[in-house]
Write the structure tokens for this entry.
Amino acid sequence: MANSSMEIRALLVGATGLVGGHCLGELLYDNDFSAVTVLTRRPLDWVPPKLTVHVVDFDHLRDHAEAFNVDVVLCCLGTTHRAAGSPEAFAKVDHVYVAELARLAAARGVPRFLLVSAVGADPSSPVFYNRIKGRAEAAVSELPFKAVHILRPSLLLGQRWEPRPAEDWGKQFAPLWSWFLWGPLGRYRPVSAETVAACMVELAKSDQEGVHIHYFNT
């Protein structure tokens, strides 16, 4: 059941990314959200009255604890090995920062936390990327939120600002190999970032409790 009669205060992290950018647009134009706060490493070009922007150093998130006075956190934070520069730096963004965001939200009594993860996420996976994503999911899920929604998309389709050669290669062949991904394998089919963002914003309005994992194209 949706919280359609409520004015929801949302905190979005990762608004300059592919999914986060679509989430920001959805939140700003959705009248169910009365206020939107963004934590970002750099200023945004457009700040309408409904939006509050905190330019932060993610190593010092506790300096912005007041930003967590919200009803729901939408976390789209993430990077790549290439952008991060090392496995340790990648893990810091995709696991350590996510876990700290969740701890701060739980400490402030935020009832709902939503996280964009990845298909294949598993804290015990032999694949480093999947293992880090799985650890982030575990860190969020073990906290006392009323509801946790974890979204596990496969390859994200959409226009990114920064080049990602491996993703670009995958997108070129996506129409071909998607034909072979049906049934339980359907979750591995590419999905548009806009679709993931729209799902995330709808879940942010949900009254459903508990920990839930969401796949796409299944």
Q: What stands out?
A: The chain has six helices and nine strands. The chain has one domain: 8-214. The radius of gyration is 17 Å.
